[in-house]
Amino acid sequence: MDYLLISVDPDEVDAERRKARELKRSPWWKNQLGKGLCAYCGGRFSPAELTMDHKLPLVRGGKTSRSNCVPACKSCNERKQNHPAQEWKVLLETGGES
Ligand SMILES: [Zn+2]
């Protein structure tokens, strides 16, 4: 169980953050936002209310890729950040809070 102990090179995290800024300008991302759906709660939002979320956080070794980046509403994004990754994963697998 060293999942939470993975250490990621800060330079690599910076590089992935830069990539994320580029990805946000891409037609692909604008298309994702245009769908207006939060990937976590499934709620409908205007594109301005959605943020880019890394399913596997960069600090845990996640990458800025189309498969790892999803639109999330602000409340899901905040909720996710308040959870240790594993706890959040359990929430996702069980379909969220009951
Ligand atoms: Zn949401």
| Biggest sheet: strand arrangement | 1-2
- How would you spell out the order of helices and strands? HHEEHH
The distinct bound ligands, ions and cofactors come out as: zinc ion
Q: Separation of termini?
A: 26 Å
- CATH class group: Mainly Alpha
The percentage of residues in β strands lies in 5-15%
As a percent range, the share of helical residues equals 40-55%
Number of helices: 4
What fold name stands as the CATH topology?
Answer: DNA Binding (I), subunit A
Rg result: 14 Å
Q: Give the averaged pLDDT, no decimals.
A: 86
Characterise the protein shown here.
With 98 residues, the chain is mainly α. The chain has one domain: DNA Binding (I), subunit A. The protein has 4 helices and 2 strands. It has helices at residues 10-24, 27-35, 74-81, 85-93; strands at residues 50-54, 69-73. Strands 1-2 form a two-stranded antiparallel ribbon. The model has no long low-confidence stretch (mean pLDDT 86). Bound molecules: zinc ion (ZN).
Quick structural overview:
This protein has 4 helices and 2 strands.
Main features:
mainly alpha; DNA Binding (I), subunit A; flat; binds zinc ion; 98 residues; 10% strand; two-stranded antiparallel ribbon
Chart the SSEs and their pairings.
Blueprint: H1 10-24, H2 27-35, E1 50-54, E2 69-73, H3 74-81, H4 85-93
Antiparallel strand pairs: 1-2
Bound molecules: zinc ion.
